[in-house]
Specification:
alpha+beta, five-stranded mixed beta sheet, binds fe (ii) ion
């Protein structure tokens, strides 16, 4: 009885769809209501306890690696859906593509189960995280929209597992993974990472394919597009073409997040080496190098980043003092983003 797909329709407002298209992302609190969200959380917990969730695996070069602490299942598996009736209903009936297309036709989302993937995730804590990436890295991937829903009713600052969005050349946004909070973003143009989780974390992700994704205008950069005037840079920020240079523009963020997430796990050293080699190649390229350098100069300072739901940081004064006057409970960022020093910590 708590399943109410009408509630999802209402939550997906025209304003949210417009922000999704212009900024690349939006956050919706209260998408499902507490009871429905808690029921979905219980279904993930019961699948995890039953040993039915698999350790996350990923492909790198020719090999497959396991990601410790992170377990997931794909709801395309009918046998699993039979054990998770609330997710089964959501898989078959979710109105997200239809409603968003209605508000924002440019999204060109493909409706129907065949064009969607619903994955449940249980992060056991212990530092499980994901390095900087795009959900859609290029052809032949068809994902257009990522819709993450968090199911952590007891989440507190310090628990970790926040989603960090790094919209191209815009201030970063750190989003606490609180119960019934949905984060929607364009899979092909919002760089993001997941911070290490200190405690177990529950969420699910709905990916929806799009018909215009990875078209010729979204892939690669031609010599004529390596322009640094304001209009060209603004166009790049709103285009999936940014992926062609993201790794070099955000070289440090990729490397730090990669080291943080991989630790000394198998494949870690190879992945860092591959990242550094890619960056070095672009920064040695006669046409790309000055373009990348120009874009790097336009990156906002780390101190401009903010935590979603908190007021923006003041623009003047010593950035290391940010948050020093807050109560510890509110002080999510315990490190100064600018210098790494501890801030207002316990
Ligand atoms: Fe992702």
């Amino acid at each position: 009885p708590q399943r109410d797909h009408g509630r999802i329709r209402t939550a997906l407002t025209p304003e949210a769809a417009a922000q999704l298209w212009t900024d690349g992302w939006c956050v919706l609190d209260g998408l499902l209501g507490r009871d429905w969200a808690m029921a979905l959380r219980s279904e993930i917990a019961s699948l995890a306890e039953g040993g039915l969730m698999r350790e996350h695996r990923f492909q790198f070069a020719q090999a497959q690696f396991r990601k410790p602490h992170i377990y997931e299942v794909d709801m395309h598996d009918a046998a699993l859906r039979a054990r998770a009736p609330d997710f089964d209903a959501l898989f078959r009936e979710n109105p997200v593509a239809e409603v968003l297309n209605g508000h924002q036709p440019q999204l060109q989302l493909t409706p129907g189960c065949d064009a969607s993937t619903l994955k449940l995730q249980y992060n056991a804590g212990g530092g499980g995280c994901f390095p900087c990436h795009y959900d859609n890295a290029g052809r032949p991937n068809q994902r257009q929209l990522t819709c993450l829903v968090y199911l952590n009713h007891e989440w507190q600052p310090g628990d970790g597992g926040e989603l960090e969005l790094l919209p191209f050349l815009q201030p970063t946004i750190r989003i606490p993974p609180k119960l019934d909070r949905a984060v929607l973003f364009l899979s092909d143009r919002v760089l993001h990472r997941v911070l290490p989780a200190a405690v177990p974390r529950y969420c699910f992700t709905l990916w929806i394919d799009g018909t215009a994704v990875n078209d010729d205008a979204s892939v690669g950069l031609s010599a004529a597009q390596l322009a640094l005037d304001d209009a060209s840079v603004a166009a790049l920020c709103g285009s999936a073409r940014q992926r062609a240079v993201s790794r070099a523009v955000y070289a440090e963020e990729y490397e730090v997040s990669l080291r943080e997430c991989m630790g000394d796990a198998q494949g870690a050293a190879e992945m860092v080496a591959a990242h550094l080699a890619h960056v070095a190649q672009q920064r040695a390229h006669p046409q790309l190098a000055p373009f990348v350098e120009g874009l790097r100069k336009r990156k906002p300072p780390p101190s401009s980043g903010r935590v979603y739901g908190e007021s923006p940081a003041p623009e003047v004064g010593d950035p290391c003092q940010l948050g020093a006057d807050k109560q510890p409970e509110e002080n999510v960022a315990r490190q100064c983003a600018a210098c790494g020093a501890a801030v207002g910590g316990r």
